[in-house]
Amino acid sequence: MGSCACDHCTAACCRYVAIPLDKPKSAKDYDDMRWYLMHDGVIVFVEEGDWYIQFQTRCKNLGLNSMCQVYETRPMICREYEAGECDYTGGDYGYDHLFTHPVQVEEHYNQKTGKHLPSIEHLHKRTTSPKRKKRATAAVS
Questions:
Q1: Cα(137)–Cα(98) distance, rounded to whole angstroms?
Q2: pLDDT-derived band of residue 121, with 50, 70 and 90 as boundaries?
């Protein structure tokens, strides 16, 4: 008798959350991605032209046996997940781009624009308004 992948499931799909990102348009957007990737368990990827940030984090409803403990009342996103999308049988995800380290973002930006990412100070100056300096005034008695 054959077995189905679910019999050997390690619930890989229940060990991360991937959320869509706006496509980066500016150096600041790329610098933000660098910051994301400075955190453990975070990757950024592009799939079919869409950008995502992924956090490695285990679902709280995943039992020690890798089975869903709330299967009958699981969220719709879990119900819509199809066997063909299974991470257990996965292999190559076919990412357009996969970023696991900040340097990869810098290299991508350089390749795309022919420029290097500006320094943090330069990015900060461009995204904040100039502050007026207060003049020291002598108190008159």
A1: 56
A2: low
Alpha helix stretches (DSSP H) within the chain? 27-36, 76-79, 102-113, 120-127
Band of pLDDT at residue 12, cut at 50, 70 and 90: confident
Backbone angles phi, psi at 25, to 5 degrees: -120, -15
pLDDT computed for residue 3 by the predictor: 57
Integer CA distances (angstroms), 104 to 35, 58, 78, 85, 99, in order? 12, 26, 31, 27, 6
Tokens 């992948």 sit on residue: 5
pTM over 0.90: no
